[in-house]
């Protein structure tokens, strides 16, 4: 027996296989995948390509038209990225079911029959390979230790384009088939049929139906309920990272959901002070903030900052990993710091952390992000000093930015005017 025969169509004998079942799953994915794709690409823009911060940086002509990332509504990145990761996880069972429903076709023999057929197969490879690659790299990135030797961002970005190429060609080729299949057999009618009355689709010419169907062990209704139930289960395991509350302990797919003590600082920590190599000496009484870009640099102690005008606002930390949390931050407005340094027109601001290594120890923001009345150098959260893990003595909090730019353990801020 050769390997191909293990996957030959005759071995897949469920009578529910066929163009109708595949089309139902296809229709759900057709609605969901564009949302996952667009929210993913939008995240690339949120990192600030105009400041050389989007990853990967050099993407040639596959550059997404950059727009200035908005600061309002404050929950914008929370929504786009929460949807990207959340929906991306929720559709995993649906993707797997869809693959199950077409698996004999993926391994059909002969593998290539004509030029047109070869192109169709190539687009399938891009589609299936692309989506599995995106799911696997995405899931690995939200776990603590990303295990690949290559950059997640680069891999996930290029993988997305491969997937998109496969997706667009596949939809172009198969949409008419899907629409016909769904029109021919009304969904609700089929949902009334139990296991005993489940029979193969009549004259299915798609090549998806079993050539030698066995008696049904599950109805189409039962199979779709299983897939839908799995998607729901993933939802329950996922939403707690964003909603908080009791569901947070159920958010096991996103491991930053555990507890960090009981106090006002008990919310997700991305990278602890210890992991970032931040020591007590650096953040003790000797810590100062340097503000650069004015006529003279100014150096402020934490006590001096505390005496400035305090502003309090609810802002989210929205991580690229999909989790988010809204907390109440208090601190000094960034624009007040600019004024103090004698700068009247700010074009960009560059923030640096005490953290020496890592790609997130320095970040540049645009004018609207620096000047927003709710953009803070935060000193306190929920009425108490920031904990060391949340960035004590001071961190950046700006509306609608990706969490990765909410720099902790800030050491300096440099304002720059136009073309300086
Ligand atoms: N200096 C520094 N700041 C940082 C990070 C970091 O690794 N180093 N991680 C960022 C990321 S990815 C996120 S999501 C937020 C998380 O903030 P939190 O740990 O206070 O929840 O901090 C950001 N600020
Ligand atoms: Mo993050």
Automatic annotation (TrEMBL):
Q: Name one Pfam family in it.
A: Oxidored_molyb
Among its keywords, does the record have Glycosyltransferase? no
Residue ranges spanning the membrane: these are: 20-47, 83-103, 124-144, 156-175
UniProt keyword list: Membrane, Transmembrane, Transmembrane helix
Residues forming coiled coils: none
- Organism superkingdom: Bacteria
Q: Which residues form the Oxidoreductase molybdopterin-binding domain?
A: 284-416
Which protein are we looking at? Molybdopterin-dependent oxidoreductase
């Amino acid at each position: 027996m050769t390997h191909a025969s293990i996957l030959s169509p005759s071995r897949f004998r469920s009578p529910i296989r066929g163009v109708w079942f595949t089309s139902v799953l296809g229709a759900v994915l057709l609605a969901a995948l564009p949302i996952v794709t667009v929210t993913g690409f939008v995240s690339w823009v949120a990192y600030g390509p105009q400041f050389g911060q989007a990853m990967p940086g050099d993407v040639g002509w596959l550059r997404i038209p950059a727009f200035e990332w908005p600061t309002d509504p404050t929950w914008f990145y929370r929504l786009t990225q929460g949807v990207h990761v959340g929906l991306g996880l929720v559709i995993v069972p649906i993707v797997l079911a869809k693959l199950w429903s077409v698996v004999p076709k993926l391994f059909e023999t002969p593998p290539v029959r004509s030029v047109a057929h070869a192109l169709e197969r190539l687009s399938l490879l891009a589609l299936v390979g692309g989506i599995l690659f995106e799911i696997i790299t995405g899931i690995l990135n939200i776990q603590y230790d990303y295990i690949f030797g290559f950059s997640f961002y680069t891999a996930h970005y290029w993988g997305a384009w491969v997937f998109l190429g496969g997706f667009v060609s596949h939809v172009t080729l198969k949409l008419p088939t899907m629409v016909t299949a769904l029109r021919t057999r009304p969904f609700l009618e089929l949902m009334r049929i139990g296991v005993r009355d489940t029979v193969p689709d009549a004259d299915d010419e798609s090549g998806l139906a079993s050539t030698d169907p066995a008696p049904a062990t599950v109805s189409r209704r039962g199979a779709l309920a299983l897939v839908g139930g799995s998607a729901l289960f993933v939802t329950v395991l996922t939403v707690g990272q964003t909603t908080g509350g009791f569901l947070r302990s159920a958010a096991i797919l996103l491991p930053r959901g555990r507890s960090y003590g009981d106090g006002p600082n008990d919310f997700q920590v991305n990278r602890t002070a210890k992991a970032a190599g931040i020591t007590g000496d650096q953040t003790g009484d000797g810590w100062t903030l340097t503000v650069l870009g004015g006529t003279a640099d100014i150096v402020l102690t934490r006590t001096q900052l505390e005496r400035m005008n305090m502003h309090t606002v609810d802002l989210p930390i929205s991580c690229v990993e999909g989790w988010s949390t809204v907390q109440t931050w208090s601190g000094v407005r960034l624009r007040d710091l600019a004024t103090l340094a004698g700068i009247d027109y700010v074009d960009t601001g560059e923030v640096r952390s005490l953290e020496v290594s890592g790609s997130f120890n320095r970040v540049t923001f645009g004018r609207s992000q620096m000047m927003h009345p709710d953009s803070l150098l935060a000193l306190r959260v929920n009425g108490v000093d920031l904990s060391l893990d949340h960035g004590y003595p001071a961190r950046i909090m700006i509306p609608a930015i990706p969490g990765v730019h909410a720099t902790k353990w800030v050491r300096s801020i440099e304002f720059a005017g136009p073309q300086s």
